[in-house]
Write a structure and sequence with these properties.
Blueprint: H1 3-15, H2 20-32, E1 55-62, E2 65-72, H3 75-88, H4 93-98, H5 103-106, H6 109-112, H7 115-134
Antiparallel strand pairs: 1-2
Helix pairs in contact: 1-3, 2-3, 3-7
């Protein structure tokens, strides 16, 4: 699935819930689906600055595709970073850089999350884009 298709998938998935609490549960469930995070990556240089909680994002570039390992010490943030790496992972750096980073508005997360958490999501997105620029060829 391409980036835009995945964004639409999550938009539709979140749109199925009318209650805010159900949307939060969905985010929590996404965090539970995250792949195991290697302990050797739990270092300050992999932390995403600008998040209220601790969030780690580690790039893995292989066969011209960029993937990520991620983790957070907060459940909502873990759900959000899990969604982000599902959307942007397994893509070329060029596709990531060229994608529309208005993800938060598309999913209407700015109305669901507090301002601090919304800023954290933007920080995560910026880190994804920053890593993609590093691996551009």
């Amino acid at each position: 699935m391409i980036i835009e298709e995945k964004i639409n998938f999550y938009k539709d998935s979140l749109g199925c819930f009318e209650e805010t609490l159900d949307k939060y549960r969905y985010l929590l469930d996404q965090g539970k689906k995250s792949k195991p995070f290697p302990e050797e990556y739990r270092k300050d240089n992999f932390k995403v600055s600008g998040c209220q909680s601790q969030v780690w994002l580690v790039p893995e570039f292989k066969d011209n595709l960029l993937n990520f390992y991620s983790d957070s010490d907060a459940f909502i943030s873990k759900g959000m970073i899990t969604i982000l790496i599902d959307i942007y992972g397994n893509n070329t750096p060029q596709d990531i850089v060229n994608s529309d980073f208005e993800f938060v508005k598309t999913l209407q997360l700015d109305t669901l999350l507090t301002q601090g958490r919304t800023n954290g999501v933007y920080a995560m997105l910026n880190k994804v884009k920053e890593y993609a620029k590093v691996f551009l060829k």
